[in-house]
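## retry 2 of 3
previous attempt timed out at serialization; input unchanged, resubmitting
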Amino acid sequence: MTQPTDVRRVGGLLPLALELAARRLPVLPLRAGKLPVGNCPACAAVACGGRPNMREAGPCRCPAPCHAWAAATTDPHVLTSPAWARAWSQAGAVAYHPGGVGATVVDLDNADAVAWARATLPATRTVATTRGEHWLYQGVMRSVNAVRDGVDIKSTMSYARWLGPGTGPMTALPDVVRALAVKEPVTPRPAPRTVAAAAPAGGGECCHRTPAYLERGIAMAEQRITEAAAGVHATVYRTFLAVLSVHGRCGCLTDAHMQRLFTAAQTKGETTRHCADAWTNARTALGM
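## retry succeeded, writing output
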């Protein structure tokens, strides 16, 4: 039987994580640079928080702190387990899953964004950050990056760095925040556009897979996006994550492969910006 990690031996941020977990706040370790722990080899081909068929998102069942937000937990036995010990010993910060505690964080990344929030949003609990503020509301919604300049929304399927409890009462999530995540209808749909975001450096034949395997993987990814009947935005992100987790580090992906995936997403109504954000977020989640 494995024994839990000695909290005193690991030290660092684990005591804080246990304190937050005792308050029912799902927590996870972050590496330097505010990045989550990378997936273990057994989970490398599984989308963030997804089951192997990638049709459902939920808590990660891996004993290691894989899958970013999906690893967040309040279980002290998990937090102090040997599988998490190395992550805590190397952690640079503690993060939490806002959606897991019924909250939404409006992440204001600069002074202009803070000024906009003060003039536009209902007052609520605020937490000072390095460059701006977090505004915390009671209620959940889907997470979206770059809803406007310097403003990200972190709630379900996302994580936020713990920077303290903040000041002021937490108010209900207002419609004005929910509206930031609603895409404007596209009528008619624009033709797919060429994107400027770069694929991981490399190109050519995959060093650990055959070219036919890569081609089949890209074709299956295109099909998964094209056949999505609902939750297109989440499907696009999980598909990008799955492709990058298998081929993103070996250098076999080219700009042409990425363009095919972006085109499939755009035919389902995704904008160029949403495609680029999903690609970037997937790379960040994988520590790339």
